[in-house]
Write a structure and sequence with these properties.
165 residues, alpha+beta, five-stranded mixed beta sheet, three-stranded antiparallel beta sheet, 2 helices, 27% strand
Length: 165
Amino acid sequence: MLFYAYVKQITDNVTYRYVIVFASRAVADEWWRAVSTSTVTSFTSSVQRISAQFYTHNVNLANAADSLTTTGVATQFIGKVFFTLLNDLGGRGLNIIPPPDHFADHISGNSFFIRSKVYPYEYWYYPTSDNTTQAVYVSRTERTRFTVSRTDSGTAACRNRHDWL
C-alpha cells in the first residue's frame, strides 16, 4: 500500500515543499535509513525526519528530492519513491495526503531491522557464532533482520532471520 509524507524547506514556509510517495511504509523507512546514514554529509545535515510522515530539508545544503539521483545517497529507490513539488505558498492550496489505513503492520511475516527510536543508529544484533547465551545485543555497526509473526496460540513471536537458514 502506498505511503505518503511531506517534506518542507526548513529556512522558509514558502518554497521547496513536496509530497513524497513511497511504494510502502517499509520503503519509506528504508529510504530514510539510506538518507540518514549516507556518506554524503550534505544530505545527512539537510534532511531531518520529524515524524514518519513529515520531514524537513535545507535546500541550501541538499534537496531531499535529489536523494534519488545523487550517488551514495538513495539511488536504489528511484523506482520505489517519487517527489511531487507542491505549489509555493502564495495563497494556493496544499495537497492533503490520505491517512494510512493501518499505520504499523509489524506482524506481517516480513523481516525488519529493529532500531531504537531515541538513538536511531542503534540496532538489535544477534550474532550467529560464539553466542552461547543466545543474547541480542545493541550495535551501531552490525544489525540482524527479525521477523514478527503470530504463533498458533495467537500471541506474537519474534525470530531472527538466521533461524530461516
